[in-house]
Design goal:
This protein is of the alpha/beta class and 249 residues long. The chain has a single domain, classed as Spore Coat Polysaccharide Biosynthesis Protein SpsA, Chain A. It has eight helices and seven strands, in the order E-H-E-H-E-H-E-H-E-H-E-H-H-E-H. The protein is globular, with a radius of gyration of 18 Å. The N terminus is likely disordered.
Length: 249
């Protein structure tokens, strides 16, 4: 483990990692995040412990004694990935938030490119990782292609891979979004709905380090379809936001 990190009173970037039962992946991933970001941004790491029943909480607690910029939020019971991401974003102190999955498949080495894409683009609301060299099973990759194809055909969000956990976005833009379970899969369409641009960054996928997947991809087919219809309706009902000026006395 690296030497103790200085306290971050006002980070410019918050890294949100939703996890459920990922005890063995905690320490290696935090070390990789540090290697990618140390000396580049004032940042905090927020792990959202989504009702884990293994030693995830204890492992995080041990690392928190050595890294002052590590925080842990805990859900009393699992609320799902979107709920975990939302809890982390709401607690974040950075103006830019980056997310990644806690299983090690998302390589933190790509975080700087995602953060810079948002930081340097005045109208970029979201930088979305797009996986290449997927390491999932053939069936899961097939599910992903079908779900992405159907979603893109209906929403026309121009995104080939919304399931990648590596993302960076402006916190204020995320908090504009209507919250629902599955929100994280529709961020490109909803960010465009608010008038912001999307930046895309190719990221190299890798196998998970240990354990099994806790968050499936569109494994609840009918709920996924209902969400898709709901987002389509939201986009169609959006009207341009009027310019507002305050009239002085």
């Amino acid at each position: 483990m690296s030497s103790p990190q200085p306290s971050v009173s006002q980070p410019s970037v918050s890294i949100v990692v939703p996890v459920r039962n990922e005890a063995d992946n905690i320490v290696p991933l935090i070390e990789e995040i540090g290697a990618a970001l140390d000396g580049r941004w004032a940042y905090e790491i927020i792990y959202v412990n989504d009702g884990s029943t293994d030693a995830t909480g204890e492992r995080l607690g041990a690392v928190m004694k050595q890294r002052d910029n590590l925080r842990q939020l805990r859900h009393a019971k699992s609320g799902g990935q979107s709920a975990a991401v939302r809890s982390g974003v709401r607690a974040a102190r950075g103006a830019i938030v980056a997310t990644l999955d806690g299983d090690g498949q998302n390589n933190p080495a790509f975080l700087p490119d995602l953060i810079a894409a948002v930081e340097n683009g005045s109208r970029v609301g979201l930088a979305a990782g797009q996986r290449v060299g997927r390491k999932d099973t053939g069936f899961k990759k097939f599910q992903s292609r079908v779900a992405n194809g159907v979603r893109n055909a209906i929403l026309k969000d121009g995104t080939r891979d919304t399931g990648c956990g590596l993302k960076a976005f402006r916190r204020e833009v995320f908090l504009m979004m209507p919250y629902f379970d599955g929100l994280h899969r529709f961020l490109p369409a909803l960010v465009r709905r608010e008038g912001y641009e999307i930046a895309y960054v190719d990221v190299i996928d890798r196998p998970r380090r240990s354990g099994v997947s806790n968050y499936g991809f569109f494994d609840r087919l009918w709920i996924g379809i209902m969400d898709l219809v709901g987002v389509w309706w939201l986009i169609r009902r959006k009207k341009p936001t009027p310019d507002v000026t305050e009239v002085q006395a």
